[in-house]
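[step 3/7] inverse_fold.run input=structure_tokens len=390
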């Protein structure tokens, strides 16, 4: 299957860009990188929350603009902004500097929201898209694995060098984006609407279609549990269990390998059903967070975090597929941006709660993860019982 897909230029370029943008050389020590210049855990999550709020503000304008100027042009602009954000991160040495990086990142995330998946979806003509999304995510993880391996073997504690190499990788990715071919969605003349009309129509419909709203919020909850436990809080958790920087780097490599399981998402979904996949995505991280809250064992902590990584990696292509099924042809980016607003709004609140809890007592933040997964499971099950199920 993937051998055939290699003849599609856009897919090849998108896979290469995903690989390069996955090469975050400081990934295994991103929290420690910030803490080294005096940034606290709460400040880190505060930056995440502020970034989410800005992402929400920019989501709809970016989505509307993307439908007007084209997906390729939007992707190119965001890719170069991504490159600039990594240059800022490389030289950052204060809370204000890192906040600037997060502000730039918010502009990038809101701009790419729905655009990257739209390019993949339309380039593949809507065929075998869950597998394509899974492979796209896997390439990003492969890049992270390579970068993390190089960090552990050659870079050591030189955080600045890791930041510089990351910026170089993102710069190459930005230039590759210039060679993408524009893709457009064919629509009947009678179906064409102004993107702003699509937004105004979609927003109230979401409030009316509670199953869709419940689905989006539930996905946001489990996504933030993943983000907090595998990116932000895992490093302090491992340190609490006595891990050294080198051990943390090696554990990050294992997490990266686990993330590659996203490529199996479509195959596993076919075997166990979409419903079973979603249920597992809430139950597994919920139980693992409970374990993390009560253990001081490095081995148990590492195993629990890896399970969370695997469950979310398998979920991500499926939830992306589900969101793409719910759009109006011709306005894919605008509608996906509307959906992202709900998810980002939830994430902004959850991030602050995690940060405050972590600064007070790390196990309390892990228990919050269990609570978030429980609430997400409740919302998903409630939404699935509605007549117009997802």
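[step 3/7] decode complete -> sequence:
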């Amino acid at each position: 299957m993937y051998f055939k897909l290699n003849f599609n230029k856009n897919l090849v370029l998108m896979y290469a860009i995903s690989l390069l943008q996955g090469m975050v050389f400081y990934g295994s020590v991103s929290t420690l990188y910030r803490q080294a210049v005096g940034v606290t855990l709460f400040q880190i999550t505060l930056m995440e929350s502020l970034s989410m709020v800005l992402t929400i503000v920019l989501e709809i304008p970016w989505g509307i603009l993307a439908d007007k100027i084209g997906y390729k042009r939007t992707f190119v602009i965001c890719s170069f902004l991504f490159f600039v954000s990594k240059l800022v991160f490389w030289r950052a040495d204060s809370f204000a500097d890192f906040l600037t990086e997060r502000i730039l990142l918010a502009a990038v995330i809101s701009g790419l929201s729905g655009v990257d998946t739209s390019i993949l979806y339309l380039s593949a003509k809507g065929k075998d898209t869950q597998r394509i999304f899974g492979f796209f995510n896997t390439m990003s993880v492969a890049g992270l694995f390579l970068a993390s391996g190089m960090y552990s073997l050659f870079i050591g504690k030189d955080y600045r060098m890791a930041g510089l190499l990351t910026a170089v990788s993102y710069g190459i990715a930005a230039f590759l984006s210039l060679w993408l071919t524009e893709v457009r969605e064919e629509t009947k003349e009678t179906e064409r609407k102004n993107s702003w009309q699509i937004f105004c129509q979609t927003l109230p419909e979401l409030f009316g279609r509670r199953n869709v709203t419940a689905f989006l919020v539930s996905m946001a909850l489990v996504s933030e549990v993943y983000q907090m436990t595998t990116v932000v809080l895992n490093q302090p958790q491992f340190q609490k269990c006595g891990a050294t920087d080198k051990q943390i780097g090696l554990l990050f490599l294992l997490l990266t390998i686990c993330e590659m399981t996203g490529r199996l998402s479509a195959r596993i979904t076919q075997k166990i059903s979409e419903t079973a996949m979603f249920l597992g995505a809430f139950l597994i991280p919920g139980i693992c967070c409970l374990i993390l809250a009560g253990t001081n064992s490095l081995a148990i902590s590492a195993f629990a975090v890896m399970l969370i990584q695997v469950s979310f990696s398998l979920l991500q292509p499926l939830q992306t597929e589900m969101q793409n099924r719910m759009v109006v042809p011709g306005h894919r980016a605008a509608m996906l941006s509307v959906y992202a607003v709900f998810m980002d709004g939830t994430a902004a609140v959850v991030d602050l709660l995690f940060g405050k809890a972590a600064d007070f007592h790390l196990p309390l933040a892990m228990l919050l993860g269990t609570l978030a997964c429980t609430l997400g499971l409740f919302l998903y099950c409630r939404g699935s019982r509605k007549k117009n199920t997802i």
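[step 4/7] annotate
The CA atoms of residues 353 and 365 lie 8 Å apart.
The longest helix spans residues 41-69.
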